[in-house]
Structure formats: structure tokens, C-alpha cells
Amino acid sequence: MKKEIKVDLDDKSYPILIENGILSECGSFLRRITAAQKIALLSAPAVYKAWGRELLKGLARKRFQPELILISDGEKNKDEKALSRILKRLASLGFQRDGCLVALGGGVIGDVAGLAASLYMRGIDLVQCPTTLLAQVDASIGGKTAIDFAGIKNLIGTFHQPKGVLIDPQVLGTLDNRQFKTGLAEVIKYGIIQDEALFAQFEKRPELILRRDPQILFRLISTSCEIKARIVSQDEREGGKRAWLNYGHTLGHALEAYFHYGVLTHGEAVAYGMWFAGLLSCRLRLCPEIVLRRQIAVLKRMGLLRKLPNFSPEEIYKKMFLDKKARKGRIQFILTRKIGLVTIQKNIAQPIILSALTQLRAEASERC
């Protein structure tokens, strides 16, 4: 199985190549998409141990001799220290503007690599080789780069499109179950915002998905990438439709920050964010309750609704204002009209939001 998808951004267009075992062909991919001769490979120690040699073999076949930069993984390490370490290393290696940074890892590695590549000498080439499901279907595509700063997720960042994205689904075999499931939250999101047939896969074939059946996994990844590529091609810098991709993320990011990134994974936080978005949608009579119930059932079946500790609705509400999509003192929410169709809502009254947060807190404690 092989799939190539184009992110169409005129002179910044790039391919997403999806194929099992494709890491071993990364050298050919790089020769095709970049003229860079000097390569730096950025990864985390555990990821490099698992897949670094495979990637290096692929690079060596095309006579690339990459320099290696290793940084610690995890959200707590997605900070200015990691960014500084990468930039200093590139400088010490004498990298110039014709260099290329290859990111091998999950969302944290990809985000920090992207920011470093966008800043170093005002921009060098970047190639994403994502190794988690979350990164493969979301973080590696679209050019968003960031680090967390002052306790706020993704506060400092840029838009810097990669030269290409190389996705090898077989690397997901080394993911533990919790990390695999956290990536499923983003796939479910794509179904809710754009593709009811994709969402229905989670209702019809949950066992195959959780068993990581190769065929259905390939289909989930490729469909998700097609949806994101299409949206990014229409709206690179989130002026309109790209905001749809934030379904569940306004509350999700607030929950992550509230619990100091140590209780819920990103996908688990977004899962509760999607539940909350469904609650708001029902309260505003944008959709019937069955739409909310279908979402909750799928999220629970995929193991994404882990026990949610008690939280303060008022404090969570405050943290929502730190979301980058907030405008003119109002929080922007992506809400659902039906599975496969969402809408942007900007003027929801505070009492409605607080009431929905209180309801979520109560219902989550009962169901999970």
C-alpha cells in the first residue's frame, strides 16, 4: 500500500508520502524534494534507538552523511532550552541556508524542529518523519511550529512548511497503547469535522482499529492526511476553514495546562474537549443529542476517556482565553451541526460556557 498526497500551496507545495517501510527509502525522498547537501537529523534517544538506524541506512544509500542532534522528548521539554540547544548545535556544525533539518519523532520533536528550521538563518529546509500516530495525522502536516512558553502551550511559534512528510505506518508498532490511542483522537476529530464515513469506521470496526490492523490503519492515516492537506491548501494560516481543525482543542489545551501536562495526554484532553464541544452544540441547538451521544460512545470505546480529575470551571474558563484562536476578548469555539459538519461560534455567553463545563465535570465523573 502506497499513497502520495499533495499539500497545494503554490511555491510552498510539498508531498506527503505514506508507505510501510518507507523510512529505508528516505534518501531518495530527500534527493527529490530538497537540494540540500548538509543534513542534520533531530530525534529523541528512544526514537533514534528504535528507528534511527533504518533512516540512516536510507540516507546513506544516497550518500547523505547527517549530523545527529538528540533532545529529550515529552511536552515538558518542548521549551526554549530545547530550541536553543538545536540552534547552537546547527551553528557549531557550520550549517548554512542550504542545510536541511530532518525531524524523526513525535509531535514535540516535529514542533521544535520546525521552529528551529524556521529561525535558523531565517529559514532552512525541513523534512518531517513522524513516528507517532498523532504526529502522522496532524502535527507533521501544515507548517505550524511552536514551543510552550510561560506555562502556555504553543505560545511561541511560526508557520514554516516542510519540504515533505514521510510517513511509515509500521513504526507505530513500537507505540504503547496509550500513545496509540491518543493519536486516534485526532482521527476521530477529522471524521467529526469533515467525513462521517471515517467516523463510522470507529463505530463499525473498533476491534480492528484497536488491534492496529494494517489495512484499516493505513486507511485511517491516509484519509486523515487527505483531509488536513485539503484544508491547509485552502487556508494556510488559519484565517477561516483551518480553524475547523481545532475542534475539541480549545478546552483540550486548557485541560492540559490546568493539569500541568502530567495527567492527560494531548489526545485524551482533546477527547474531553470534543465531548464539551458536543455539549455546547446541543445547548445552542446546533445539533440533536444523538450527535453528542455518538461522539461520547466512540471516545469511550477507544479508551480516550480516562478518569478526569476534579477541576474548577472558572479556572478552566480563564485558561481558554489564552487560546491562540481567542479574538477581541471572546473565545472561539468549533461546534458541530452533525457528524461531518462543523461551524465556528464566537459569541457564546459566559454562563452557557460555565454551565457546560460544570455539566461535563459531573457527567465525566459518572461515566468514566
Short description:
With 368 residues, the chain is α/β, with parallel strands linked by helices.
Report the average pLDDT across residues.
Answer: 95
Give the strand order of the largest sheet, numbering strands 1, 2, ... along the chain. Answer: 1-2-9-6-5-3-4
Let me know the number of strands.
11
Task: Classify the beta-strand content into a percent band.
Answer: 15-25%
Largest sheet, in brief, is: 7 strands, mixed
CATH class of the largest domain: Mainly Alpha
Distance between the termini: 37 Å
The radius of gyration over CA amounts to: 20 Å
Tell me about this structure.
This protein has 14 helices and eleven strands. With 368 residues, it is of the alpha/beta class. The chain folds into two domains: 2-174, Rossmann fold (3-Layer(aba) Sandwich); 177-367, Dehydroquinate synthase-like - alpha domain (Dehydroquinate synthase-like, alpha domain). A hairpin with a 2-residue loop joins strand 10 and strand 11. The longest helix is centred in the middle third of the chain and has 21 residues, at 214-234.
Give the arrangement of secondary structure elements:
Elements (H helix, E strand, L loop, with lengths): L1 E6 L6 E6 L6 H8 L4 E6 L1 H17 L5 E4 L9 H13 L6 E7 L1 H13 L5 E6 L2 H7 L4 E6 L2 E8 L4 E4 L9 H18 L1 H9 L1 H5 L3 H21 L14 H10 L7 H18 L5 H13 L11 H8 L12 E6 L2 E5 L4 H18 L1
Helix pairs in contact: 1-2, 3-4, 5-6, 5-9, 6-7, 6-9, 6-11, 10-11, 10-13, 11-12, 11-14, 13-14
